[in-house]
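Narrative of activities, Objective 1.

The group set out to show that a structural description can be obtained from nothing but a protein's sequence at a throughput compatible with the screening campaign. Below is one input-output pair from the validation batch, recorded exactly as produced.
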Amino acid sequence: MADPGQAPIEELRKAVALAQSGDWPAAHLIAQDHEGDRIANWIHAIVHRMEGDLSNSRYWYERCGRELDENVSTAQELEEIAKELAGPEVNRARGRS
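Output recorded for this entry:
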């Protein structure tokens, strides 16, 4: 497991792309490797939701400070994460230039 809060952005982007393509098990492995990172925990919540394990999903939503909203699709959430990871502000928020 990596340092909490320090998941490499490229790894998170890869996890999102995998989940978007339907490969939630591979996305899960990446999220699991970066437990403690807010975005990795959010991805972790989404992949459990994709799996159909809502109880586990709710746990991971809580870990990232969010709530499961069944009115928002997993595709919409993954797109929200992708947009967050695409902007330069993600680097500043993580203490990188």
